User: What shape does this take?
Amino acid sequence: MVDQRVIVTGAAGFIGWATCEALLARGATVVGVDNFNDYYDVALKDARAARLEAHESFTMHRLDIADADAVKQLVSDVDPYVVVNLAAQAGVRYSLERPDVYVQSNLVGFLSILEACRAQVESGAALTHLVYASSSSVYGDSADAPYSVAQKSDEPVSLYAATKKSNELMAHAYSSAFGLPSVGLRFFTVYGPMGRPDMAYFKFTNRLVKGDAIEVYNGGDMLRDFTYIDDIVAGVLSVIDRGAEVVPAGVPHKVYNLGNSHPEKLGDFILTLERCLRDNDLLTTPLQRKDLPMQVGDVYQTFADIEESSRDLGFAPTVGMDEGLSRFARWYAEYYRDERS
Ligand SMILES: NC(=O)c1ccc[n+]([C@@H]2O[C@H](COP(=O)([O-])OP(=O)(O)OC[C@H]3O[C@@H](n4cnc5c(N)ncnc54)[C@H](O)[C@@H]3O)[C@@H](O)[C@H]2O)c1
Assistant: This one.
């Protein structure tokens, strides 16, 4: 690839960091954007950023994507051929406590990304397309599994899901009105090393290594399409490469599912996690769990139909739950070794 200049927002985040690493490994020039907010452990964001900053062809900009002028200036200065917007306030439960943050990052912030990209398209700059994160949560609780993009997805059960669905509508409007090519990716429960400490598998691990009981909603009777980070990154790279070709003529906007398409019972996931933690000497006491009812905003199951993603993007997840959790546990043991000793 010739001079791949890419802007990745949310670069200090889990998926953003992993995407940047993969882009840098194949010789791209990457400009990262992140506001390093303290929604979860900032030290982990700093550690991800430090790894990226070790590459000569990476620069990090600490800014808020809701700062429309700064975003527009940066996109104009960098003149990227692709913008990948992964910055957002993630998490379903936190949207019950702090809805304002979701509106600011996911709606106001996303609008400034769209505006900056629109300016590039209108000025005839290099930008070929925008790639942005959506979420499996847009399917709510009433879709038929497996969830295909063709299904109705306008009955969100959390504000987080509502902002992600809004992103798809906003992107469609910009593609229609201004010819901005864009591809939205509905990610399904992404996990792995350097992952997000607010997600269940990571929270369980933090508690189990201390010998504390874990809180399991709905008695573990929930299905999640857990998707390993490397599989997600392969999908994102494919959209970076092929996005401008897969969008339809007319309104150049398209949405894809990126999920493992192999849902697991949460209860089975916990048993596998327990085994992987024991294998790495992270758990030596019996597992204790406290069963709690289903939480507001949670859905019973997620299950991606990936027929279109496979056909158009060559998306083919390869890492199953055993391997994925084993890699996570090995990383956790290594990364937090000093803190535990
Ligand atoms: N991890 C998953 O399972 C999952 C599932 C579905 C969708 N998603 C979406 O994928 C994207 C990446 O998720 P992630 O898991 O890497 O989350 P993450 O929280 O680790 O990464 C998001 C990053 O964006 C940054 N950020 C947030 N608001 C910002 C703002 N206003 N300006 C600049 N930076 C800001 C945060 O500091 C963080 O580093 C998000 O859009 C998320 O909603 C993730």
Summary: The radius of gyration is 19 Å.
